[in-house]
Amino acid sequence: MTNPFDIPGQRDPLKPLNPVTDAHHDDLFIDVDNTKQAFEEFQSILDTDYAFERGGAMAIAVGDRQFGKTALLNRCAYWMQREIKARATAARKKTTAHIIDLRFLAGDVPAALTAPERVNTVCHHLMKKLHDSRHLAQPWQDEGQREANLVLPYLADKLTRDAVLIVMLPPTADVIDELVVYANLIPKRVVMLAETSFVGRLEEYSARLKRAATVPVFLRLGVLRPEDGEKFFNQRRDRHASDRSIAEAAPEVLRWLVTVKPTSVGELQQVLYGLYDDVLRRRSPAQQLTRDLIADFYISRTRFGGDQ
Q1: Same structural domain, 177 and 213
Q2: What's 248's DSSP letter?
Q3: Do 51 and 105 belong together in one domain?
Q4: CA angle, corner 68, sides to 265 and 258, nearest 5?
Q5: With 0-12 CB in 10 A as exposed, 13-18 as middle and 19+ as buried, what is 137?
Q6: For the chain, how long is the longest CA-to-CA vector?
Q7: Bridge partners of 249?
Q8: Which of 31, 55, 174, 296 could form a disulfide with 36 if both were Cys (CB 3.0 to 4.6 A apart)?
Q9: What are phi and psi for residue 208, nearest 5 degrees?
Q10: CB atoms within 10 A of CB 183
């Protein structure tokens, strides 16, 4: 029997989908927790060529932990790269979008640094990445340059002629202050993608962001809607329709699962993967996913005295 919530080609089924590294993931996105609306809002960035001819662009995924922010931005970057290529081909241009992923810096930039200092550090790594990947028209000479306000505004002039950059920014503990800095420095032919779980603070800073040189597009994600549980389950299950040994869900059990408490898409994936992994290990696999089975699963994961 197959676990329908395993992710093909991915060692960790609980990691965010990423079609940038595995194009097959692009078929696995499901319209839950406002994902479709958020994705369409991102696509509106390309309604005109403004973001690439006269100014930059920025999108911020907003939502709590496990709301699918990282997966959404991965999908956005992948779509934008392909869309720019398709438009360039149709217009007989050579424009190419390059994805520069700086999220590996999330754990390497000290939290004790001020927001401007962290932005400077990220900018320094961005230039090194561009230099190493040969996306700059001329080699980057000033490798000691760490002041973002002396580099980012002039970046478009340093890029190769037909390059567009999609920069995946690292999330940090004080990401809001940094977003304001980036929004005021983004040059043309550069799109920055960021994410934040600090929803309340973002509202506080919204006025400053709206006055920035580049006004961000906000991609808001939330908890699952009552119908999202069944939609998520059915679309994953339908990918293995020929495997009749996979336990089906009892009527209304998925609606109950996502409404008994506010549930995110990441939590649902985690629970369902764990449930089916547990079912696979049983001598007599369950024929149906029921409330009792879910309750037993949760109890089996509970440790005496709590987590250590």
Answers
A1: yes
A2: E
A3: yes
A4: 15
A5: exposed
A6: 66
A7: 289
A8: 31
A9: -65, -40
A10: 23
**Calpha distance 264→247 (Å, rounded):** 23
Last residue of a domain, one of 220, 247, 274: 220
Q: Are 158 and 279 contained in the same domain?
A: no
Residue 85 is which amino acid?
Answer: K
Q: In sequence order, what are the beta bridge partners of 168?
A: 101, 193
The answer to the question of residue 308 being in a domain is no
pTM for the full predicted model: 0.91
- Provide the residue-wise pLDDT of the chain in tens; the chain has 308 residues: 688 999 988 888 889 999 999 999 999 999 998 899 999 999 988 776 655 667 889 999 998 889 999 999 999 999 999 999 998 999 899 989 999 999 998 877 766 778 888 889 899 999 999 999 999 998 887 766 668 888 899 999 999 988 999 999 998 655 678 888 999 999 999 999 999 887 777 777 788 888 899 899 999 999 999 999 999 999 999 999 888 888 889 999 999 999 999 999 999 999 999 888 887 676 566 778 889 888 888 777 765 544 44
Q: Which domain holds residue 270?
A: 228-300
